Amino acid sequence: MVPVLLLIALATLATAVVLRHFLPLLRSPGLPKGSFGWPLIGETIAFLRPHPSNSTGGFVHDRIARYGTVFKSHLFGAPTVVSCDEELNHFVLHNEERLFQCSYPGPIRTILGESSALVVTGERHRQIRAMFLALVASTGLKPAYVASVSESARSVVASWRGRDTVTFCEEARKFPYKVIMEQVLGLSPDEPVARRILVEYQTFMKGVISFPLTIPGTPFARGMKARKRISDTMEAFIEERKKNGSSKQGVFLDVLLANKDLSHDDKVAFLLDSLLAGHETTSVLLSILIYFLAKSPNIVEQLKREHESVRSSKGKEEPLTPEDYRKMDYTQRVVSEALRCGNIVKLVHRKALQDISFKGYVIPAGWKVLPILGAVHLDPSHHVDPEQFNPCRWEGLNQTNSKSFTPFGGGQRLCPGSEIVKVEAAFFLHYLVLNYRWKLDGEDVPMLHQYVEFKRGLPIQLEPL
Ligand code: HEM
User: Fold this and answer.
1) Residue 192, pLDDT score
2) What spacing in Å lies between the alpha carbon of 66 and ligand 1's midpoint?
3) How does pLDDT run across 298-331, given as a tens digit for each residue?
4) How far apart, in whole angstroms, are the C-alpha atoms of residue 320 and residue 365?
5) 218 or 307: which carries more pLDDT confidence?
């Protein structure tokens, strides 16, 4: 009898808490239309259901049909305004720290660490971001850096010689890993420390995209441990570098170590971030390119003509230069189209710092705001036949960043790595289309979970040219 009474008391209490929490929110005038779903979990499970990356997914699609491109929901434990509207997305991204603030869910912050660029706000964000901008400036389109990216792309593609099939997602990781390791730490990926970091990093990544349960043995808990081990390895590496100095010129670690504004923890977090942000996203972009191109032989032919023309003016073994990159117009359109259809970063997390009115909607202070970047990329009023992979749509258009094309976010948090990625993707395509024909070894669709994933790792069959 006592447990039954206890249950009734708990249920009454829970109902009272839920009603107290939800009812005033539902009644606020000017709120976008929408529903809150279940108490506490809200609609998070339906929202996170995986879908092909060149579609908005059932949840967003249904809500847009029912309520329009701005709607309310309850996601990640908070009342939320979801925006699939290019104007509101732009407004949110461009009012960072004034009206909105970056606000990733607790589990993401736990696993990335409190010093991650994605997590920090205010002055600390400015300082850490400045380091990333310095990293990008140290590479830019400088001939030595461009030549080393070219060489890395060449060597990864060359390593497939004699193989009929490869699991592309694995191969795609090697190239940006090589670039970022050499650039930031001055390490070749074959050195034992770099190999150790890669193994730990893969466990860490599984944690980042897993369900956030800190119980020992779960992927999340293993991911957190792997993060700690990478941090320890980075720390040991930093100490060793401080003692013995760098044997190579132009390694970014030396710039990082000389920075007086950042704490030791910030520096370790910077190294982790550059691996996570600079390596995983780029390899996903390469996989998406391979996937869509495998289905578009005409586009591959046109790409090949462009790269044959680039190569015709130079020796077979000569690395690519910044001038070569500037000649790759069609390639840039292909990359932009892969970014639009791939939606590698589907959304960004923000919260409203005060009550905000925009286009007749009210966003109450403290609410979460989720600009869905991908929904605008797939909106037929901005992109004709949006589900089609069609690089020609970019002819004569701005491909850097516009209100309807924001694969790299925008405003104060615009991705600092966008140019690095484009050079890497273009050079990789150069060596690929000049050396191989490929087709998919069975269907394997890019699926958007929290992150884009190919279930089978994207196996492809290769035919040398
Ligand atoms: C295809 C590849 C990439 C995509 C699609 C991408 C996308 C994004 C997006 C959408 C954001 C904004 C997050 C937000 O506003 O909350 C972001 C931020 C960031 N990205 Fe990238 N990124 C890519 C590659 C890279 C690379 C190569 C680097 C390496 C330098 C990098 C470093 C960062 C950093 C440090 C931030 C945080 C910036 C800040 O908060 O100030 N990303 N990225």
Assistant:
1) 86
2) 32
3) 999 999 999 999 999 888 889 999 999 999 999 9
4) 51
5) 307
Query: Residue 247 in contact with residue 214, Cβ under 8 Å?
Result: no
pLDDT in tens, 249-304: 667 888 888 888 888 888 888 888 888 777 889 999 999 999 999 999 999 999 99
- For residue 314, report the distance from its CA to the centre of ligand 1, in Å: 34
Buried b (16+ CB within 10 A) or exposed e, 406-441: bbbbbbebebbbeebbbbbbbbbbbbbbbebebebb
The full set of domains in the chain, from first to last, is 31-464 (1.10.630.10)
Cα–chain-centroid distance for residue 348? Answer: 10
Ligand 1 mean position to 276 CA, how many Å? 10
CA-based nearest residue to 256, from 128, 118, 421? 128
Query: How many angstroms separate the Cα of 309 from the Cα of each of 298, 300, 304, 324, 330?
Result: 17, 14, 8, 10, 12
Confirm or deny that 341 is annotated as ligand binding: no
Q: Which residues approach ligand 1 with their CB closer than 6 A?
A: 102, 117-118, 129, 132, 273-274, 277-278, 281-282, 285, 344-345, 348, 407-409, 413, 415-417, 420-421
